[in-house]
Specification:
Helix content is 28%, strand content 21%. By secondary structure, it is of the alpha/beta class. It binds S-adenosylmethionine. S-adenosylmethionine binds next to helix 5, strand 8 and strand 10.
Length: 251
């Protein structure tokens, strides 16, 4: 039998946090496709400011009878209210699992990288047995963004740092400790990042990628100063090529 026809289906009573990649349906893994197709319930989180779930849009072609729970959450930096909001979803997920249904939570990119899945996984693990909780990796935004340019993220002894662009002092400190710096949540900070990179002599060393692999919304620029004149929204990643650290540097 063709091995591509026999991927694992969801099991009754199990919970799956599934990364659906950056937004293009053909960047889903085969495992993700089989599990999403066979799920009883799909939880699709979206922030209050988003009109629709980009993760759900990505897997729309796989929805055929599964119950879809549209979970709207507030984008807050308050840890207590974040946990509270996810506790309600975790309760619903665990109830469904206890009644023998399989539940999938879909998330953009990978579930363990700055993802809402991290909250949900911690909470469902309080109720469900460990063997009933699964994580399915997805292609992260930084990988999708880098693949739009023919520049390696890391080779030889290079170090890569992935961090949010929220605190520019920390971003500047990171420049001293890596050869590649990946900045998530960069949309509101493009001008400040451009200032910083100019000051550090790295003005020509950054790429901005917005909505990578999301069809006509995809935008790339190698000129942050020019790009800063436009509003870029939440799905914005900056890749900074700080330098190279070769094997010889360690000798
Ligand atoms: C909450 S994090 C989600 C990260 C995701 N779990 C991953 O593995 O890449 C959101 C940030 O990821 C980045 N991001 C996610 N999808 C993206 C895309 N398609 N294009 C560019 N950046 C993206 C943006 O920097 C955005 O602010």
């Amino acid at each position: 039998m063709n091995q591509y026809n026999q991927y694992e289906k969801t099991q009754p009573g199990h919970f799956y946090a599934i990364g659906v990649g950056p937004g293009s349906p053909d960047l889903l893994t085969l495992r993700a496709v089989a599990l999403i197709r066979s799920a009883d319930v799909i939880i699709a989180p979206r922030s209050r400011i988003a009109a629709k779930s980009l993760a759900l849009e990505t897997v729309q072609g796989l929805i055929d009878g599964q119950e879809v729970i549209d979970h709207v959450y507030a984008m807050t930096r308050d840890a207590d209210s974040t946990i509270q909001s996810w506790a309600q979803v975790a309760d619903r997920a665990c109830e469904r699992c206890s009644s023998g249904q399989s539940v999938v939570q879909i998330t953009l990119g990978d579930p363990l990288i700055y993802s809402t899945s991290c909250y949900l996984l911690a909470l469902v693990r309080e109720t469900l047995a460990g063997e009933c909780v699964h994580v399915v990796p997805g292609i992260s935004a930084f990988q999708a963004a880098a693949s739009l340019f023919d520049q390696p993220l890391t080779i030889q002894e290079d170090r890569m740092t992935l961090m949010p662009a929220t605190d520019l002092a920390r971003v500047e400190a990171a420049l001293d400790h890596c050869e590649t710096l990946v900045l998530y949540k960069a949309g509101k900070r493009i001008a400040e990042i451009a200032d910083l990179l100019e000051r550090r002599g790295l003005a020509g060393c950054a790429k901005l990628v917005c909505y990578a692999e999301q069809g006509g919304r995809q935008f790339t620029s190698s000129d942050l100063r020019a790009a800063a004149k436009t509003h870029h929204g939440y799905m914005a990643t900056v890749l900074v090529h700080v330098g190279r650290r070769t094997w010889a540097d360690n000798e």
